[in-house]
Amino acid sequence: MEHHSVLSQLAPYLLLLAMFFASVILRRLSIPSIIAFMLVGFLAKFFVKPEQVEQFELFKHAGIILLFFFIGLEYSFEKLKTMFGAWKTGSVDFIFNFVPPFLLAYAFGFDLFSALVLASVFYPSSTSIIAKLLMDFKRIATPEAELLIGILIFEDLVAIMLLALLIPLKEAGTVDVSVLPLSVAKVAGAFLGFYLLHRFVVPRINRWLDEISEEDVFVFFILGLVLSVGVGFHAMGVSEALGAFLLGVVVPETRVFENIEKKLSDLKELSIGLFFFFFAYETELALPENPAFLALLVVLAVVLKVVSTYLAASIYGLKKRARVRAALSFVPRGEFSVVMSSLQPSLKTITIPFIMLTAFIGSILFVLAPKIADKLYPPKRPRRPRRKLKKKRAPSGAPSALKETPPQSLQTQEALPRERGPA
Question: What is the pLDDT of residue 9?
């Protein structure tokens, strides 16, 4: 009895160790950590009771807010303006990967909101998985890397907008078009408010922010601020992800930026890992009602991403081999798909295997992409430069054959008949 009591007390902390070892082992196999966290979540359902993991609930809620805050840190309002230049490639990606799954889900009998959620799960590639693979396999300097990162940024922004529009529809309980104008107005107001903050307030408090960021207790300030903004946005009927993202955007690129990354990055990793863990742990284990639909969705996810990315690479001006590498490297789904899926828990029997399969297949395709591209379009071998023959000097005093032989041009010139001058 006492032995059982000790195990029950240790269970939540052993989960953290299990998440670590599972992540390390799968990463050696080029499988992203998100899969490890969800696998541990599934297995924990058989050994850990819900009340034993209640102490991690805060991290579950903080994970999504911190994730979007750190995404926002990578942007500025000036950088967001330049994203309009990626509208061509981003639009191709959106049309191919949002419209078909929405129509397919609706045709299979899903209600309008569920079809929108499924399309939103299907659409975005995983920023964290693809960015990590680009760095791990030293492909960040390849011609296609800039294109992939540009489309990922476009997808991030579209996904945030979709999230901001879907949450009010979820709370309304139905797809009511009359709710959309108010939702759009709230999103526009949030962007305007944070832009004014960035333009007029942040420059005046830059020095103060740099000073307090050096304090040991700065982590309490920034964590409290980020969570307060996220929860405040949610209370106003706007996505907490949008609030956290915009707060990250207005952070100036000074010492405060560096200190935030240094002091919050580990907490972010912990929170995001536990968010993915709970996503799987709280899912009822059941086979999908329509396995054929799931299989079709996975096949379409691979095919449409490959085709749309190849077309986008063509528009971008990449050569054929780089197009193939780009197309095969953009399949994995991940964190955004998980967030979208949480809007409709009844779909998890479809969305969880979909996300895990596409993340796994996509990671393998990423690794194989350079080899497949080289087989389809073999790189041209550089021509070897011709060796110049060294002229041998004739012995001194001996007649030189080279000197006695006139140049070829002179020989040809002498062989040609000369034109006669006027008589």
Answer: 78
Report whether 249 contacts 75 (CB < 8 A): yes
**Other CB atoms within 10 Å distance of the CB of residue 200:** 9
First to last CA, the chain: 131
Global pTM reads 0.74
Instruction: For residue range 227-257, list pLDDT tens digits in order.
Output: 999 999 888 878 788 888 899 999 988 899 8
Q: In angstroms, what CA-CA distances link 14 with 7, 8, 417?
A: 9, 10, 99
Taking the C-alpha atoms of residue 37 and residue 335, their distance in angstroms, rounded to an integer, is 12
Question: What is the Cα–Cα distance from 134 to 149, expressed in whole angstroms?
Answer: 10
- Locate the domains of the chain by residue range: 26-376
3-state DSSP assignment of residue 356: helix
Average of pLDDT values for 272-296? 83
* CATH number of this structure's domain 26-376: 1.20.1530
Taking the mean position of all CA atoms in its chain, how far away is CA 393? Answer: 67
